[in-house]
Amino acid sequence: MRATIAGILLFTFLLPTLHAAAPVSEIGSAPTYTPSPIPVPVPVMTPPQQSAPPAGDAHYQMQMLEDEVRTLRGMVEELNNEVRQLKARQLEDYMDLDRRVSGLVSGGAPASSSSPQGVDQTSSAVEPVTPAGDETAHYTNAYNQLKAGKTAEATALFKEHIALYPSGAYTANAHYWLGEIYLLQNKLEPARQAFSTIVNSYPAHRKAADATFKLGQVYHMMGDNVKAKAMLEKAAAGNDNAAKLAQRFLQQNF
Amino acid sequence: MRRKQGLLISLSMILLLWLSPAVAEFTIEITQGMDNPTRIAISPITQGGRALSEDVSNIVSADLERSGLFSSIPRQNMLSFPATLKDVYLRDWRILGAEYLVVGEVIDRGGRYQITFSLQEVTGGRNVFTKVVDGTPAQIRDMSHHISDQVYEAITGIPGAFSTRVAYVTAYPLNGRMNFRLMVSDADGFRERMLLESKQPIMSPAWSPDARELVYVSFETGRPAIFRQQLASGTREQLTNFRGLNGAPSWSPDGRKLALVLSKDGNPEIYTYDLTTRQFTRVTSHFAIDTEPNWTPDGKSLIFTSDRGGTPQIYKLAIASGRVERLTFAGSYNARPRLAPDGRTLVMVHRDNGSFHIATQDLVTGDLRVLTQTYLDESPTVAPNGAMLLYATKQGDKGVLAAVSLDAGVKFLLPARFGDVREPAWSPK
Fold first, then answer.
1. Lower CB count within 10 Å: N or C terminus of chain B?
2. Among A36, A78, A226, whose Cβ lies nearest the Cβ of B266?
3. More reliable by pLDDT, A217 or B251
4. Looking at the domain A135-253, which fold is it?
């Protein structure tokens, strides 16, 4: 009993210094404090929570300090977490910027950062070949709308493109971007249809591997993990960018 | 101090809420399944047309349906009952829209049953596998669950967890007093067995990694004490008898140690207990409450709940270095941590707008996902294949078990026919 009281007194004396200087986390491990033997003195006449108990009540002060330390510790932990997140985000932003700048320098189209997981580094979708002028212009216009973030206009134009040039050079691309837009808007069924069209009707197309991966993602989001897995494994079997993404997605989700 | 009293009060509240008759025998109500489940047909598996004492095909289809990933074709719709692959006419099954077909037959080999079973892909006409399982007539359910595991894994790529068991506590009033029972049943709720009956509360059952023993807290000595009990023999041993709290035991993945909570030194702290040397080692030291320890799959760390940061949150302790790291930051209440077998998905009780739900947090990305919408959800326990978790919740004023898949796509309730069920613990195998 005497040792306990001495410990508490020591702790009470030490605490203000610790409080000022040491990091919060160290306080917890320092004292060997046993709270149980001393009953909490409760004033009989007044409710204990509202009015301050007698000054110099070591136990009460101790409780206040413990609460205070806990609150401060919580704040430090939360701030630490925020700093960690900010650092990670900063690195991500930098990488994104770097990617886009190097895209510009090498003369290609800027990598689209519109896709939610930075998934689309494959988006130099403006074909180098130039077939019929109108067709290319129409497709480029639609694609530019998408790049400008005007998804509604882009959706309409891509649909129009598919209707105008049902077997054109960019029809598969138009399907692909429609799929991307729907996926972005979380319209899973239309997205599934768009990506399925590419997988089924343009299996040899340049976008087919990406579409297979995206279709896997869509099935996963729809909850159909059996089909999702089949598609992702198909995409993962290649050695292109889509394959890497599919492998990573499979690792993380299956 | 105030917080500690609060915890004790809520503990006794939970005990009080427990009052209603028990004896669990589950029925399963699927409340949410996949939008597009795989259609599978299980042709009757018999001994040359003679049914066994338990219907193998029914057990298998019930298992698969309960996963939420499958819908099975009713027997009365089947056009034929093939027992082997050579009797299968794929057209019969394509008409029914079946994507997969399971056929099998039983042979009696001197008192032991041998079941040969095959999985056939109907759409492509491919034979996926043909396998054999054997066992005594008393093991028909074990053999059936084995078939379910094999079929499930072949189609989904995830190991099945149908051969596992669940431990839980039931409580009901008897002659004006509460009666508590520690029970173990198959994962489908059948073959329920009582391990212990007591007039005093039983809490926190946890499995040994070999699934042959349980540890739990029993108040039968007048205060909480931790016991260890073998399932097969029923032999039990009291491990702790300290003043104050003796609680929340959790078995280490290598089977050699327990993590548990003792308040013998003043306030609740986490200890490890070496089952061979019988040594207790204190691993946390903080004036806040440290409780609900659980091992990470590599056995090197413990995750636990602590209010050292002002609110209950989940922390991770590296046992060798003693380094403590906070894991949860969303909201003002996260408790009862469990890790999925991948070691990456944290499962916990999360308070969301004032109500308690089961949530997962991806420890790499930090993404939090609330899985349940039921009322007063608690005690999550993850299946060994990481596909589903069981938890305790309230239906009306009754304590029931419920299950949800870790992607939240499948949900079902396991209401006991009578009384209150609490604190499920899914066996590790």
1. C
2. A36
3. B251
4. 1.25.40
